[in-house]
Design a protein that fits this description.
By secondary structure, this protein is an alpha/beta fold. It has 10 helices and 8 strands. The chain is 41% helix and 17% strand. It is globular. The structure holds zinc ion.
């Protein structure tokens, strides 16, 4: 539709005055609530710092260093950062280790809250190699990438007020179970199980949760994951519709294969509607191998996920 003739002449001079007035009535929050830009290069650098620590297997020095670094990184950005400590049982080494979920809360005064989460721990066994090798993996796509996206989101959240309150939760002990532990997946998802029982006891009930895991490799495609569709179809639709509006082609409007992950625990044990942005395991050949290394990550691919999350938080 063409612009009606005649309006252009008078609207130009008064537009700044209208914006100024709106700014006055909306208060300073109006400018702070601008939509930030997610920088894939920044996320890539944050993933590199994690893999440089070495495999973040619970009980290792790299694991302790990564937790301290993440906590120090989040502290000046979030309103509150909590360290949720618990014991992780490692069935590979037959020993327990100190586990930590990190919870960073932004704008705690906002009652409508969205939870964003990722696991940061690394698998102690390259269980998808043939034959499996009891050696820890770097977890670049499986761990560091999702965590890096969360850490960069924390930066954006601190500088730009979102429409909702946000809690970023970094889970420990996701990837430590033995292969073939289904149907209960004993020893898997130890951090999210601990968090879910805390959420249930404390009455923590965000609007919904978005888990980001197995993301950021060059070829990544994100199909709609079946457990997410089962428990939180509206959230899947919201997220994938936003991706389509942004023209982000990595988000595919089709059903993917099931990925049993921390979002299953949040849905089942805490009643938190949770979805997983993840690629199908069969599409990432380095999954649970010693080849899941930093060079598999792409800034553009990380940015695709980050831009969708920004669109969710800043409608
Ligand atoms: Zn994994």
């Amino acid at each position: 539709m063409p612009r009606p003739s005649g309006t252009r002449r008078w609207i130009r001079p008064i537009l700044p005055a209208i914006l100024l007035l709106l700014g006055t009535y909306c208060g300073t929050g109006a400018s702070a609530r601008s939509q930030p830009e997610f920088d894939g290069e920044e996320a890539l650098a944050l993933a590199k710092i994690q893999t440089d620590f070495g495999p973040r297997v619970p009980g290792s020095e790299a694991h302790r260093q990564a937790i301290d670094w993440m906590e120090a990184y989040l502290q000046p950005l979030a309103a509150v950062v909590q360290r949720q400590s618990f014991q992780i049982w490692n069935p590979h080494y037959q020993e327990s280790a100190d586990g930590v979920n990190l919870i960073a809360s932004f704008y705690p005064e906002k009652t409508q809250r969205i939870m964003l989460c990722a696991h940061f721990d690394c698998r102690p066994e390259a269980s998808a190699e043939y034959p499996p090798v009891l050696e820890p993996i770097d977890g670049a796509v499986d761990g560091a990438a999702g965590t890096a996206i969360m850490l960069h989101m924390a930066e954006l959240l601190s500088a730009h007020e979102p429409a909702y309150g946000v809690d970023i939760v970094l889970f420990d002990g996701e990837d430590i179970g033995l292969s073939g532990a289904a149907p209960e997946y004993e020893h898997w998802f130890q951090g999210s199980r601990h968090f879910a029982s805390f959420a249930k006891q404390s009455g923590y009930q965000p609007w919904f949760a978005i888990l980001v895991d197995l993301v950021g490799d060059v070829q990544a495609d994100y199909h709609q994951e079946p457990i997410s569709l089962q428990y939180a179809p509206d959230v899947v639709k919201k997220v994938w519709d936003l991706a389509a509006e942004l023209g982000i082609t990595q988000f595919k409007q089709s059903r993917g294969s099931t990925v049993v992950d921390d979002h299953w625990i949040l849905n089942r044990d805490a009643g938190i509607p949770a979805i997983d942005i993840t690629e199908s395991i069969s599409d990432y050949p380095y999954w649970h191998t010693r080849e899941d290394t930093w060079d598999k990550l792409s800034a553009e691919s990380l940015e695709a996920v980050g831009r969708v999350l920004v669109a969710v938080l800043y409608p």
